[in-house]
Amino acid sequence: MQDLVIEWKEDGTHLYEQIYQYIRDEIRRGKLLCQEKLPSTRSLAEYLQVSRSTVELAYDQLVAEGYLEAVPYKGYFVARVEELYQMETAPDAGITSRKQAGFSRADAGGDCLFLSDAACASEAALDDSSAVPPVLVDFSPNAIDMRNFPFDLWRKVNRNVLNLNNRDLFLPGDPMGDLSLRRTISRYLHASRGVTCRPEQIVVGAGNDYLLMLLRYVFEKTITAAFENPTYPRAWKIFQLFAGEVVTVSSDASGICIEELEKSGAQVVYVMPSHQYPTGRMMPIGRRTELLNWAAREKERYIIEDDYDSEFRYRGKPVPSLQASDAAGKVIYMGTFSKSIAPAIRVSYLVLPRRLLTLYEQNCSFLSSTVSRIDQAVLNRFIAEGYFERYLNKMRKVYRQKQEKMLECLEPFRDRFVIAGEEAGLHILLMPKDKDVTEQMLIQKARQQGCKVYGLSDYQIIKKETHRVMLGYASLSLSGIEEGMGLLEKAWL
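The structure corresponding to this sequence follows.
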């Protein structure tokens, strides 16, 4: 990669925009070549002394516009951009070619940065297969079990849908989603989560990210949005793009702190009360009531309830949704089938309060549905004919068995670690009792044994030293869990 120089502007332009603009322009000028690797988000953030999310926002925008490609487990690369206009020419004197991207301070005046060979040694070492062992066990908290997916059954439903010769499925549908699917979702939510809504209140979209972006057109004006810290980072990034201000609010053992939320000036708050990600915390009824009362005090206040994995609870009865207790019409409920069925089934849904439904109809009626009508029809039959419920019951047993195996393997760790988040979800949190043991130490030691674990710092808005790591078990076999925990025992005990 070539030497790059970034000179920070003092004109109010966001840092992520400056990083995005600079890399975009370097690509357009031909200084960054096709398939050239960029620094990791972590490396660039550390060197620029900005949050990792700032760099991620810049990279995400470049990927969205086609300037970069994100290759899983490898990083970001300059994409093939045909017939790209050379915006300006610059002399090449003094610029040398680089294969890796590391960073060092420039001696030139001003707050400038450039890439250097010397500073990229640590990152280059990560790409060197001889530096660390290969990943033998990946404890990803975001993966799910696809070994038990009913491929034959899904294929059968697909075939049955297409055999109906329903030509309407090949025509544009309702922008909110086919009414038959929304009726089915409405019945399912009422039975499983206590959600009370009409099918007309449901908006179907291709993933939670799209639906969150849709909300910018639903709200009447620019808003201040509040998030817990840590939280689901993609939601936070999306609100950064369109909200007037995004603020963080502290949490305690019961969830988001209402007194601090009141002082924040936020009109909208994003929470996951049934199973907070990534902490695994469940919001008790007292705090839920406080949160609903906060929203009810002002006309423009709303709660976004992300109920992303409510299906997987292993102890006690399922906790009702926050929306089920909402008498004032203040909860925007959202869920997805990506966790419960498969990641590639990009079907999520919003349940809009009646007032916001009116605004949606006014402001979003021109939009087309982002989910294929064929996919909607297949999913509708999969749920309506009882296949979904049977599949969920099976997966609850599978995941419960895996979690029990994980907890069994964690017994030797209990003297040195606090274990949390085992009531629901697909991952467990570990926190060392020795406060001198940091997240990075745990990650590095695990990696040396061939295990990949994940820290909570990746989910923090305000970055600070953390001592907790996440162990996902959903995608692992029972023997894989046993193997991985044996390796972690060597690494940490």
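Confidence is low (pLDDT under 50) at residues 82-130.
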